[in-house]
User: What shape does this take?
Amino acid sequence: MNRYPLWKYLLILIIAGLGLLYAAPNLYRPDPAVQISGQSSALKVDQNVLSLAEKALDDAGIAYFGGEVQEKSVLLRLKSIEEQLPAKRAIQDALGYTEYVVALNLAPTTPEWLNRMGASPMKLGLDLAGGVHFLMEVDTNSIVKTNMEGYVSDVKSKLRAADARYRGVTLEGDREIVASFRNEELRSLGMRTLRKEFPTLQLTESGSGENLEIRATLSDQEIKQLEDYAVTQNLTTLRNRVNELGVAEPIVQRQGRNRIVVELPGVQDTAEAKRIIGKTANLEYRMEAKPDALVTNKEFFEYRNEQERAAYGGAWLERKVIISGERVTDARVGYDESGFPQVNITLDARGGEMMHRATWKNVGRRMGTLFVESRFTPEKQLDAEGNEIVVQKRTDDKKIISLATVQSPLGRQFRTTGLGSPAEAQELALLLRSGALAAPMYFVEERVIGPSLGADNIKVGVKSVQIGMLAVVLCMLIFYRVFGLAATIALTVNMVLLVAVMSILGATLTLPGIAGMVLTIGMAVDANVLIFSRIREELRNGLSPQSAISSGFDNAYSAIVDANITTLIVAVILYAIGSGPVQGFAVTLSIGILTSMFTAIMGTRALINLFYGGRRVQKLWI
Amino acid sequence: MSNTKEVNGKITEYMGKRVYDFMRWRKLASAVSIILVVVSIAALAMNGLKLGLDFTGGTQIDVGYENAPKIEDVRSQLEQAGFKGAAVVRFGSDRELLIKLPPEVAESLAQQNARDAAANNSIGDKVVEVLTQHSEGGIDLRRVEMVGPQIGEELRDDGGLGMLFALAVVMAYVALRFQYKFAIGAVVALIHDVIIVLGFFAIFRLDFDLTVLAAVLAVIGYSINDTIVVFDRIRENFRKVRQAEPAEIINISMSQTLGRTFMTSFTTLLVLWALQFFGGELIHNFSLALIVGIVIGTFSSVYVAANILMAMNITKEDLMPPVKEGAEMDDMP
Assistant: This one.
């Protein structure tokens, strides 16, 4: 009686072994490191860069080891965390500030054989690793408004073309266009025209007497599409900007309808992070300067594309800016009748007017598009007392991304043709789009956790896990002796499994997550307590030790399952409604419940069977 | 009745184990419960919950000083720098301060940032800048949390909804696995626990933030766990023990699970004390909410959940497996 078949023992052993294996990477402390990557992805970061960086560190007398060239970056490990900042500065000085990004990083030290098995340590949440968390809200109202403003001028021109004379076309409350007419005849003509020309607008009639109106609104679906567009657009722009920061594992995600979360672990300089995230890359449209123009009226710019730069160098453009990037609402790749790639550009209403005014008498001349990047670069200066200080200097870097002949007067929508390949068209469209944000954004939530607090949080977290575990183990040993020992082993395996599962799932450990672990310790023994007190009871009822063990486990089973499932339900709901820290708690609690069911029921049973099973037992040590 | 021992017609021992007359105190326990709930509701109505930053919006800045500063000095430094209505308190040690700014400060800064993207004022950096100017030693920015008011409102709604949803799902599960009377008993016990924990926070004016909300939900999880263990035993005994009053069966079940209830509550409280004493300031209120919740939750599984069963006249028939009901039908003339 009370014997498990061999396969069950083996299964438990294998699961515990795998747990140990996948939990193991968490034992290796990461090395402080610096990571060097290119400002743009085109820049190669190779052995040369590594040697330069190594030389810089040698000169600065900073100990390093394990330099390696990775896919798009170079990594150098350091002996101590205090040397990270000096090392960053030394390398940045040697490599220059314009082309390379040097970021602080923590390099995992997981042994190769564990890596090969796909084992990696748990990710640490911002409250443990330190870093910044931003939540930004995209002002989607503004994009709807801009769009409606565009419609107002279109509606006017179409009505005029159809000879439907209107008294006025105005925008009411950001979202509704009102066109008014003197009589019914004109209004119905207007109605027919608008219905034909603007199928996306929803039209209703209102007003009376001398003031008959057509009210036009966008459908909800249309508005949702616009909002989605604005959010995804901003998301892309943000991703590009965050990449420039050179953060090890940034998170840039959409949250809900109109929010974007940005998490930058390890970043301490919030001011710099905010500057780069909120920075403005921009576009400028300018006419090409006439050859006889005065130097004071023109400016020379280089091409952004390397091949074009090699072939033509650059071009002289007028100083006067026709429009800038905020006026571009969309830019997409398309194909003309003969299948050549082109980029279709849409401007907002004012942009369309300005573009029209500038181009209608300049047909035949060339118009250039400039890509303006504002970069903040640290620069060394001497302050009043002669000390060397580093200031952030803003430089606007303007390069030509397209120079094309104006073939007819341009309006709200125009296209750029004569592009070499679809890839070139794709890049141009991307640049045009990423220039400016589609809609303004503002910070609605900002959390910064300093590195000292992160380290403290880990310390107190580990300490409370240790003390909690110790207390529970002592308690179990005193109350249940041999059985308590079995429960202790099961509890230990449970913690190992919990850590292993979290590592495998790539879950993030947070401070509330550690609290969840501690709570799991307390609650995981509940299953064992249920079983053991049941066994005691059965013994008191006069059952033999062996059958007391067996019926104790069997009878406690339904209570354990029901109790754990209800707790699990609550944990899942907690996960669904919670954000960041609360989710961390819910995740550890849920995983802990699942692993504890396995260890407390099967694991303990196996140990007890191994100890007592299949022999005559006079007395149970319980 | 070979398993039971009776004194004056009352079961005092069952299967060799002493049976305590829990239900004798049910009226007193009900009174205590009702008083606690009423006091909690009154405190919630009068004091209200002191909602933390997560729910109200606002800014909270945690700074570490090299030398312990005077709170009044820091307050006036901030006031002079234009941070109106800043609350400054010590946090954990005398060298760490928690500065709370009302939502308007963050809001006006956000609007400023929205208008002028290049400005990008970071409230934390600004505060540290101001404080560093006036302080001799260095200042370490440990934590900044800025929550916009609209986020707080959403979290409040989500939190409330989540709690209601959790209660509904648990009720459905218990009704399915046990019986509807049990479901009502369990949910009343849970509501009882939640109200008292919230009341505790209202009475002592403790900060109620997201982690405390998580703790309250965890209390629901723990308390239902406890209640179900007791219910499981009541169900078992209703089927097994013959010729006993419902009150006696509940007494037997309570006595049988008493050891376990005590042991589990004790181990859980042990780890929670570890968390409260060693887990640091950030999860102090979290562990406090759980400690209160577990004490109340243990009491409520015995005296609220089971009490409701008594009040609803739970009978053997309520718990007989459906197959047997069919068999009884056949026996009827």
Remarks:
- Residues 363 and 406 of chain A are 5 Å apart (CA to CA).
